[in-house]
Amino acid sequence: MALKFDTDFDPSYGHGVTVAPDVVRITAKNPGPFTFYGTNSYVVGRETLAVIDPGPDDDAHLKTLLEVIGDRPVSHIFVSHTHRDHSSLAARLKQHTGAIVLAEGPHRPARPLRTGEINSLDASADTAFNPDTALPDDMVVDGDGWAIRTVLTPGHAANHAAFALEGTGTLFSADHVMAWATSIVAPPDGAMADYMASLDRLIERDDRLLLPGHGGPVTASRSFMRELKSHRRMREQAIQERIRSGDRTIKEMVAAIYRDTDPRLHGAAGLSVLAHLEDLVARGLVSTDGDPDIDGIFSPIA
């Protein structure tokens, strides 16, 4: 079963787009293989506002955000996670608005780096970010005519959070669930076991509209997330099948499993395979010497 993605999206650079009552989306012009058309920021409210994911540190994006905000006060800036394309504009937006910045916490990997390991995603980590207020799971922040609940969803990043707009059935899903592509889960930044547990948590909720960090909305949210889960389980099965067929390295598995994927994404695909293998080894379904490693040798369990 092929997962069907929705890539029909107009970023409307330089303009705000109303995507739900009292919710305006502004898309930064930072397109790429991992960001699609760019990073989505959201302005929530009618009089006193909240901003969700201020986005990359980009002058043009800041200008558009401030134009959409106008002369209305901003009380809160919510940050879903500390990848630079989501969080790095927070400090400048705070200077302009005086709003408090809220997030789960500073950047951290999902697990400690192993001896000799290099985090290939270091360049994307916003290690300078530190929120004014740390958000525990299930915390509700009340604003002017809106309330936002924190739903912690580690996986893509250790400090990833989604934000539910209370009473509306709308959830800002950031990079955890997107309509245009699957989320990148790349150790040591992220962890597949965490991602799958967070996906189950969102499936159990009753959110009808997901507004992601890249691309357009997810409308049939529960069925789409179930398909995402099935897709991940099928990928896991494909990895096990490649190992049973004789593949021993991640490079071999990527060449077979991702043969129809843009070669520019093969590096990320290798990290995704590693994320699955970390989980499979932890569950006793695949063996390797020592800790799972991007250059490791993997074998089936006899």
Q: Overview of this structure, please?
A:
28% of the residues lie in helices and 19% in strands. It contains seven helices and 14 strands. It has helices spanning 59-69, 84-87, 90-97, 192-204, 221-244, 250-257, 266-282; strands at residues 17-20, 23-27, 40-44, 49-52, 74-78, 100-103, 133-134, 140-142, 147-152, 161-165, 170-174, 209-212, 286-288, 298-300. Strand 4, helix 1 and strand 5 (74-78) form a beta-alpha-beta unit. The radius of gyration is 19 Å and the shape is elongated. The protein starts with 16 loop residues before the first strand and ends with a strand. The model has no long low-confidence stretch (mean pLDDT 95).
Strand order of the largest sheet: 1-2-3-4-5-6-7
In terms of per-residue confidence, which ranges show pLDDT below 50 for 5 or more consecutive residues? none
Beta-strand content bin: 15-25%
Number of strands: 14
**Discrete helix count:** 7
Rounded average pLDDT? 95
Q: Cα distance, first to last residue?
A: 29 Å
Give the C-alpha Rg: 19 Å
The succession of helices and strands, N to C, reads EEEEHEHHEEEEEEHEHHHEE
Q: Major β-sheet, in short?
A: 7 strands, mixed
Q: Indicate the percent of residues in helices.
A: 25-40%
Quick overview of this protein structure:
Helix content is 28%, strand content 19%. By secondary structure, it is an alpha/beta fold.
